[in-house]
Amino acid sequence: MLKEPLESALNEQINAELRAEYLYLSMAAYFEDEGLPGFASWMRTQSEEEHAHAMRIYDYVLDRDGRVRLEGIDAPQSSWESPQAAFKAAYDHEVMVTGLIDDLVALAREENDNATENMLQWFVAEQVEEEATAQGIIDKLRHVGDDGPGLLMIDQELGNRGAGTGSDENEAANQPE
Predict the structure, then answer these.
(1) Domain hosting residue 112, numbered range
(2) Confidence band of 128 (pLDDT split at 50, 70, 90)
């Protein structure tokens, strides 16, 4: 059974993951409007991953005889200056989520809840990957700037994410059965 401080914090994380899902879906819509379907596809997949993250914690709370409490989700930002600005916002968001996960791990240790700490280690590793992936895309975008052909090459590359080239493949392999 979860202690109240951890149950509350895990519920906050569920809601943070759902807000991330909403943010990335908004970014997908922005990229569709910009005529960049590969970027849009990448963000849509990212949105789906965030939903899976929320559900992973949701199921854990229920498995530990806790109660899930969902909150309202405010409208996310809907446009950005550029693809690079959108990915910078995504990176900044992932850094914030990493901090939330680190705080959860510290709380689990403080509460001497080894099961929760163990469950959270998956998220610790996932956040390293999330930050590195976003930073890598930012680096590529920085190199091409507003160069049309370069931007279209990155768009094509990002559109291949579901074809066995992105973290969604790792995500599927690490989902609980």
Answers:
(1) 4-72+80-173
(2) very high
